[in-house]
């Protein structure tokens, strides 16, 4: 069992920046692909960013087209933590942001259905 706890959400102005953190329990954090997803009221959960686990693919990054160039995902395996730096935030990006983990061997790093563990989410509010 892996437990994930997000933090860093809050209120930010349009065009502002916010950094999210996700702390994971367990001793096998480095083996997991880690992803960030978000869900706004009345909308489906959508992929935001992901970073692979393992030693071969861990240098790569995956981003939704809508956030590419503005968001950055990173991880610190020694600290069992994954981060999401969000810049130039838009009103439509207000949502609950979730951290998730999946086994590195499974396919579909951008598909939330492939993830095994989820945090409770952290609210991001974008004001104008």
List the helices and strands and how they pair.
Elements lengths: L3 E4 L2 E4 L4 E7 L7 E8 L6 E6 L10 E2 L7 E6 L4 E6 L8 E9 L13 E2 L3 E6 L1
Parallel strand pairs: 2-11
Antiparallel strand pairs: 1-3, 3-8, 4-5, 4-9, 5-6, 7-8, 9-10, 9-11
Shape: globular
The beta-strand count equals: 11
Please state roughly what percent of the residues sit in beta strands, choosing from under 5%, 5-15%, 15-25%, 25-35%, 35-45% or over 45%. over 45%
CA gyration radius, whole angstroms? 14 Å
Main sheet overview: 7 strands, mixed
Give the class from helix and strand content and strand pairing. Answer: mainly beta
Helical fraction? under 10%
- The number of helical segments is 0
Unreliable stretches, pLDDT < 50, 5 or more residues? none
Question: What is the averaged pLDDT score?
Answer: 93
- Encode the helix/strand succession as letters: EEEEEEEEEEE
Beginning-to-end CA distance, first to last residue: 40 Å
Overview of this protein structure:
With 128 residues, the chain is an all-beta fold. It contains no helices and 11 strands. The chain has strands at residues 4-7, 10-13, 18-24, 32-39, 46-51, 62-63, 71-76, 81-86, 95-103, 117-118, 122-127. Strands 2, 4, 5, 6, 9, 10 and 11 form a 7-stranded mixed beta sheet that branches. It has a 4-stranded antiparallel beta sheet with strand order 1-3-8-7, with no helix packed on it. Strand 7 and strand 8 (81-86) form a beta hairpin. The model has no long low-confidence stretch (mean pLDDT 93).
